[in-house]
Amino acid sequence: MLKKMASKEIVVDIEYAPRLPLVSLTPSGEIVEGISLTLTCSSDANPAANYSWFKENNESAQYSRRNFTIPNIGPHHGGLYYCEAHNRRGSHKSAIHFTVVARTTFKIMNFTKLAVIFLLLLILLFVLSLQKRKKKTVVLQAESEEHEENIQVGLDPDYENISALRAFIASQEEAKEKQNNPM
Predict the structure, then answer these.
(1) Does residue 143 sit in the same domain as residue 93?
(2) Residue 86: CA atoms inside 13 Å, Cβ hemisphere, count?
(3) 41-58, pLDDT tens digit by residue?
């Protein structure tokens, strides 16, 4: 007769070096001077990985945890950072690069945009003003030429009456002079 025996459960723990780490920044996007920036590193490993952060051209570890936070970040913090995930079976590194934008640059860019818009508006108003003046000058020149033409041709009856009145007054003055100065 065959006797059945239960087998014992065997747990196999397979160890392996960390996989290539994933690195990220929080917040993402443009990094402006003065904010708090967190660099995060994660990797699958057995046993669990330990993490070290290095900055380019600096051999010593900047930080030895999964998350590396830089409070009140400045332009000098920008550059290339490496995260190393390591355990007793091995290690892997990944890198991330970021640039810190100075707040003054942000303000200057906004001021420059506003100045350009204001300048364009001034130019537009100047051009419109010139066009209006040019149009007015053309109208005044046309009226002036028409007026001169009326005087020269004698078409304006008011000017004809004035000319006649002047001639009459001149003849009256001549008559008085002859009476006062008989020769």
Answers:
(1) no
(2) 11
(3) 999 999 999 999 999 887
Q: Domain total for the chain?
A: 2
User: What is the pLDDT at residue 144?
Assistant: 64
Mean pLDDT along residues 143-153 = 56
Domain boundary among the residues 51, 85, 101 is at: 101
Beta bridge partner(s), residue 26: 38
pTM, two decimals, is 0.51
| Residue type for position 171 | S
Count Cβ neighbours within 10 Å for each residue of 133-156 and write b for 16 or more, e otherwise: eeeeeeeeeeeeeeeeeeeeeeee
Range of the domain at 112: 105-170
Shared-domain flag, residues 96 and 110: no
